[in-house]
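tool_call: predict_structure(chain=1)
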Amino acid sequence: MSTDKNAVFSVTNNSISEVRIAVKIALYPGTFDPITKGHLDVITRGLRIFDKIVVAIASNPSKKPLFSFEERVDLAEKVIENAEGMERVEVMGFDILTVDFAREVGAASIIRGLRAVSDFEYELQIALTNRKLALDIESVFLMPSVEYIYLNSSMVKDVAKHGGDVKNFVTDIVLEKLREKYK
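tool_result:
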């Protein structure tokens, strides 16, 4: 008998056969500099649709991130590890085309968060480019809760840099790391 946790067994005519159930995996790519409560909200929404989500931290040095690639992966891992209901979430870093990484991890969908109309044009361009590169991978747009609709990592960094309180926007783990960066 299989030890695959996704295997289902059926019994017919006194014989047991294994039936494989496809696991719906989605990739949630981004820079996550740093990961915010808005990101966690989108992940939670995604878990209602998908069996597994891979939070994919992009290397993306052209954005000049505050946190190094390794720090962003580590922060996201710690945040996910300490967040409730995130057992089906895995954090991984990547530095290849997003659609190629999606295929590598077995994802058939790419999750993108849409906060406002201003996000739509940019996200549509990315989705259409991804579609040209990979017809087999769908883009799925998820909106965060109203309390996070305005939130983005750049705003969090700007507020933190100027001594503002960002505890409503990030977890304690991220808050501590932001304070270390801006002391």
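agent: The first helix runs from residue 37 to 47. Proceeding to next step.
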